[in-house]
User: Fold this.
Amino acid sequence: MRGMRLVRFILTRLLQAVPVVLGVVVLNFLLLQLAPGDAATVLAGEAGGATPEYVEQLRARFGLDKPVIVQLGLYLKNILLLDLGFSFRNNAPVLGLILDRLWPTLLLMGATLVVSVGGGVVLGVIAALGVRTWRDHLISIVAVIAYATPLFWIGLMLILVFSIRLDWFPTSGMENVVAFHEGWARVFDIARHLVLPTITLSLFYLALYTRLMRATVLEQRGAEYATTARAKGLTERAITLRHVLRNALLPVITMAGVQVGALLGGSVVVETVFAWPGLGQLAYQSLFARDFNLLLGIFFLSACLVVIVNILVDVIYVLLDPRIRVGGQS
Amino acid sequence: MNTSFRVRFLGNPRVLLGLIWLALVVIGAVAAPLIAPLDPFAISGKPFVRPLDGFLFGTDSLGRSVWSGLVHGARTTLLIAVIATVAAVAFGGLLGALSGFYGGRVDNILMRLTEFFQTIPSFIFAILLVAVLSPSTTSVVVAIATVSWPPIARIVRAEVMSLRSREFIQAAITLGESDSVILFRQILPNALSPLIVTGSLLVATAILTESALSFLGLGAPNFMSWGFMIGAGRSFLRDAWWLVAIPGIAILLTVLSINLVGEGLNDALNPRLRTP
Amino acid sequence: MSSAKPQSSAAGVSEPVLEIRDLSVSLPAWADRPRAVNSVSLTVGRGETLCVVGESGSGKSVMARSILRLLPEPHLRISGGAILLDGEDLARADDRRMRQIRGGEIAMIFQEPMVSLNPLMTVGRQIDEILEVHTSWGKAERRRRVIATFEDVRLPEPERIVDAYPHELSGGQRQRVMIAMSLVLEPKLIIADEPTTALDVTTEAQILTLLKELQTKHGTALLFITHNFGVVAEIADRVAVMRFGELVEYGPAANVLDNPQHAYTKALINAVPSLVPRKHPPRNAEALSEPILTVRGLEKTYGRPQSGPNWLSRILPGLGQGRRSAVRAVNKVDLDIRRGSAVALVGESGSGKSTLARCLIGLEQADAGSAVVAGDQIVGLSRKGWRPLRSRVQMVFQDPFASLNPRTKVGDIIARGAILQGESADAALSQARNLLDLVGLDAKAAERFPHEFSGGQRQRIGIARALAVKPDILIADEPVSALDVSVQKQVLDLLDDLRRQFNLTMLFITHDLRVAAHVCEDIIVLKNGTIVERGTTADIFANPQHEYTRTLLSSVPGRNWQQTIPDGYPARHV
Assistant:
C-alpha cells in the first residue's frame, strides 16, 4: 500500500524533473550561441583536431543555416537521444567519455555525503547537548573556521602535511595503477586514495551541517512537544534520542538535497587538486583543451545527476516525515 | 541605527575581530600602490626567496613579491565579490519581491526559475559561463552573480509573503494605497534586515567562488588575485609551501571575518533569534 | 495595589493532594518585574477542581509549570517556597524523583495539542512511552491499556487512532489524545493549562464535559488554568484569581463568581459580556428602510475547482499532482444590511465568516454573485476600481500587534487614508489628532510609534485609522479576540459608542456569542460557508430555530452563570 504510493511518488517526481532537464538543454544551447565563433566550430572543439569536412557535417546536422528555433529543436532532439557529440580532443564520443568518469565522481560524492551528513549530525548533537560547554565551543569554533576555508586550499595543505611531509596518503589519483591490485587489495588501495579528497570536499559541508544540526536540536529541544515529553517523565537522553533527533534531522536532509549541486561543483576543484579521475577533472581538462562540447555534456549530465540525487533525498524525507502526503504535492 | 543596536553589534567581540581584519583588508586594497609599491607581476628578486628573507612573504617561482600580490590581490578579490553581490542582491531581491508580492502565476513562474538555478550545479555553470564569455573581470562578475541570486530571491520572497499577509499591509490595501507604495514604502523597509544579513554573508561566498575560479585559471587576466596565486604556487608545493599557504590564509581570514560580522549583524538585528 | 490576603477558605478543603506554600518564581534581570510568581499559596483537594484565573502576564501558567519543574531554567527558576505533593516537597526533589512524579503522579495537559504532540510519532506510541517509563508491562498489555484509555476519552475507532499521526486527527481529537495521555496512569493530579483555548466553542464544551466526567470517575484532582470566567463557572469547585504574579482572591467558586471581594476580581467579572442581549433603543424607522449593503448569491471557493484532470493525470491516470480539493468557503450568501445597524456574523473556525468579510472589502475576489454598497457593485472590481470606493467600507483588524506598520508614526498611519482620498496632508493630520482624542488617546500620540502602545491602545489606533475616511460600513474582524478581558470590554464599548455617534453600519465578525450579544442587535449564524440562521439577537438567543444555533448557544461556557445585567447602556468610561 505505502510501497505502491511511494513508487507513484517517485514517478511523479521524475515527471516533474522533465522541465528541469529540458531547461538545462536550452541553457546549453544558449551558451553555444554566446560562444565566440559559430556553433559548429565550438562543437568540433575549437582549437582544432576536427577536419573541415566534419565541421561542415556538423553545420548540416545542427541546421546552422536554419532559423534559431529549428536549431534549438535539432539540438534538443540530439541531446534527448543522448547523442552528445564527439570529442576530437579525446577522439571519443562525449557520452562514453563522461560515463567512464562517472563512477569515481559518484564514489567521491557518496563518501562525502556520508562523512559530512553523518559527521555533521553527530557533531551538531554533541555541541547542542553540551551547549555552552568546552565541547560546544570547540566544535563551534572549528566549524566556523572550516566554513570559511577554500576547498582547494585545504586540499593542498592536506597534501603538504599528510602526503609530502608525513607520507601517510598518496598525493593524487584513485589507485596505484602500476601495482595491479586485485580484490580486497584494490579496494583498500582505492580507499587510501579516497581519504584526503573526501576530507577536503567534506570539510565545508561538515561545518554547514554541524552548525545547522546544532541550531535545530537547540530549537527543537525548546519545542512544546519536548516539554510534553518531559512532563511524561522521560529522561533528557530519551527526549533527545527519541523525539528531538528525528525532528531535527529534517532540515538537515533538506539542506543536503539543496547542496548536491554545489557539491558537484566543489568536486571540480577537489578532483583537480588530487587528480581524481572523475567528471570534475574531465571538466578541468576540457576547459583547457577548449573542448566546449565536452564541457556542455558534463554540465548536462551533472545536472541530471543532481536531479536524481534530489529525488532520492525527497524519498528519504518522505520516509521520515509522515506529514508529507505521498502521491500528492506537499 | 539606535544605541541598543550599536551596543549589541559592536559589543560582540567576534564582530570586532572581524571588523578589524576587514578594515585592514580594505585599507590594503585601497592603498595598495602605497603599501606595496612593487608591481605584483614584476620580477623583483630571485625566485623562491623564503619569507622574511628580504621580502616579507618571500617571492614566487618568477621572483615576484608575494606581499605585493597579496595586497593587490585584495583589491581584485574584494571588488569582484562586492560588485557581484550587489548585482545578485538587486536581481534576486527584485525577483523575490515580485514573486512574494503578486503570488499566483507570477510567483509560480519566478519560483520555478529560481528552483531551476538552484538545482543546476552552480559552480560548473559558472565555469561554463566564464569559459564561454572568455575570462575577464566582467565575465567573472556575471558568472558569480548568475549563480548567487537564487537564495536572495527565496529569502526576499518569503519575507515579502509573510509581510504581505500581515494586517498592516491588508489595512494599506483597504485604504487604497497603490502597489508600488505598498511594496517599496511598507514592505521592503520591513524586509531589509534579512536582506542585509544574507547580502553580507553572500560576499563571503562570492570571495570563495572568485578564488576557486581564478585558482582554476579562469580569473580576470592581468589582475593579481589570491586564488590565482594559489593556483600558480600549486606546482611548487613541495619546495615553496608559502606560495600556497599565505594567500590561502588571507582568503580564510577574510571569509571568516565577513561571516562573523554577518552573523553579528543578524544577532543584533533580530535579538530574539540570537543563536544561543 | 491593595493585595488582599487570600481568604483562608482552604480550610474547607478535604485532604489536600497538592499544597503550594509561598511559591516564588524569579524572572531574569532584563524582565519588567523581579518575579513571575510572588509568594503564592494554594491547595488542591483530592478529587476537586481548582481554577486559576488571570489575564496575560498574571503568572498563572508559570505557576502551573513550576509544579512539575518544567520552567525554562535558568531564566525562570523557583526562588522560594514549597510545593507539597502529599507532604513531599517537589521544589527540593531530585531529578530522578521528579521523573517518577511527572506523568505518574501528576500529569499535564497543554494549550496547543498540535504543537504539544510530536508530529513524527504515532499518538499511540506517544502514550505508550509513559507506560514504558513508569511500568514494567509488556508491549501487548501496554497497547491494550492505551486503547482502553482512548475508549475512555471517547475517541472514535481507538484501534485505528492508536496508529495515527497527530496531523491525521482533528483539533478536538488531538486534545482528547492529550487527555488520554494525562489519564493513562490515573495520576493524583492533572494540571491543565488553558486546554480549551485553542478549540472551537462546541469542541470546548465537549472537552470540558469529558474532563469533568473523567474526573468524577477516577477521583482525580484538577488544577485548571484559564483566562475565561465562563469556563470557571462551568467546572470550578474553587477559584484562585491571579494578577502580576500574586494571588488576589481565593475561595469557593460560588463566592468568587457571584460575590467577588477584591476590586480586581469585580472589574474582571464585570468585563465579561453577558449572554443576555442588551436592550437596544428603538431604531429610526426611516434609516431602517434603507439597505446600505445588499449581497446576493456570493460565492468564494479556495483551491482549484476540479474542472477536469490536469495534464499529468491525463498522461498517467491516478498520478495527478493531488490538487487540494476545493473548499467552498462562502456558499451562495444573501445579505441585506440596513444603514445604522450592527450585525454580528457568528461562526466557528472554517465557517467562512472572515472570507465573507474579506470579499466585501476587496481583499479577496468573490467567484460569483453580487454585492452592492450604497448603489455600487463591488464584486469583480479591480484594485484600481476599488480605489474611489475605499471610503465606503473600512475594516478593524484582529491582531493589534500586526495591524500597524512598526515603522510609521501613529499620526501618519491614521492620516494616510484621508490623504489618499484627496485631503491635504495638514488637514488629514489635524483630523488624525481629533480622532485620537475621540478614541480615548492623547493627541500627542500622533508623534509616537506603534510599539509604544499597549494592545488595547493599538486597537483604538486601528479604529481611528478606519474612521479617518468616514466610512459608511465598518467591518470589525474579531477586533477583541486578541485582547485581555478587561480591555475587551472597553474596546467593545468604544465601538458601540462610535457607531451610534456617526450612524455607522457595523458588520461584526466574531466567534464569541457573548461579544455578539453585547454589541449587535442582529445576528447571522454561518456554518461551512452557508447562513443557517438570521434574526435579531434577542429572538435568536431566546428561541433559536436551527439545530446548529442551538448547539452553539448551549456550548457557551458558563451559560447558566449570569452576571448582573446592565440596563440599557452602561456608563461610558472610554
Remarks:
- Residues 93 and 194 of chain C are 27 Å apart (CA to CA).
- Chain C has a mean pLDDT of 86.
